[in-house]
Amino acid sequence: MATDPVSEPMRLADMPLHDPFVVADDATRTYHLYTSNDPSVSGVQGVGTMVYRSRDLRDWARPVVVFLAAEQPNLWAGDGGWAPEVHAWDGRYYLFTTLHDEKSPLPVPSTGRWGTPFQLANHRRGTITAVSESLLGPFTSVDPARPTPPEHLMTLDGTLFVDPSGQPWMVYAHEWLQTVDGTMEAIRLAPDLTGTIGAPVFLFKASDAPWIGEEIPAGVPHQLPPYVTDGPQLYRTPDGSLLMLWSTYEKNVVGADGSLTGGYVQTYAVSKSGEIKGPWRQQRPLVRNDSGHGMLFHTFESRLMMILHRPFENARGKLYEMEIVGHELRVLRQRKDLDGGG
Prior knowledge:
Layout: E1 21-25, E2 30-36, H1 39-42, E3 48-54, E4 60-68, E5 79-89, E6 92-105, E7 123-132, E8 140-141, E9 155-162, E10 168-174, H2 176-179, E11 183-189, E12 196-205, E13 230-236, E14 242-254, E15 260-271, E16 280-282, E17 292-298, E18 304-310, E19 316-325, E20 328-334, H3 336-339
Antiparallel strand pairs: 1-2, 2-3, 3-4, 5-6, 6-7, 7-8, 9-10, 10-11, 11-12, 13-14, 14-15, 15-16, 17-18, 18-19, 19-20
């Protein structure tokens, strides 16, 4: 793995990153910002994960690579490296990141849920689990033969949730490419996070968001499929409710290659029961303007923050001060002094 190069500090406005995830490490008073490896800034070639580090969320060290797919013997996939997250568990650190293999097709549904032809390719995609003794890696895959969610499902963006009984779960997005109406699902994890227990549990589908069809052009009666689920992240509120940040698209247009254009948005849902199984109630979007895949963390001064990326292409990290009132999550202000605005 790469060592930390000596260089001038970087700023968020100049740092390529997608699907940002922050770990605020109390032991070192250092913020660790994980994202997909970008050789142009890490200096290391290959699909994997890199981490920027900062003491103040303003000045960041050049990234260190902590995981490379090519260094994992017999790994089932070598593309992607999306949405890395790192979680402390039982004295070790666990990396979740999504890989895919376009040469391993999955069954393609002959029709969508609306009875229309649906011919976009499905291939093997899912979140892997890797482990390390350090936040700086190296991380090693715990099961190189398969993704953590069921391998016949096309999934992405797995995140860790621990319920009140101490049971760990992986919550993930089931791809719209396979379902047309993307879903959020959860599956129990083994106590050491190295496998799964039982069958997946359905949480909600993207089209449950009542606002998703707003601002559709005149003459179009409602939002048209597909409906996208991306980037789940769970947060327990002081009143015992459970929040899930997630992202989707408004006003979708699907290209011949399956690419999406439209408005990427950061939104969230609430389980007032506090249970992962819900029921989940969809809330209004928090940030629009081609923004999303956000997560919440606390600063060392106990300020609740959200980081997300914007725009979807050539993305940069954007920081927001947040507050929670009851079970409602609110944006207070964008920290343009830290992220450079935009």
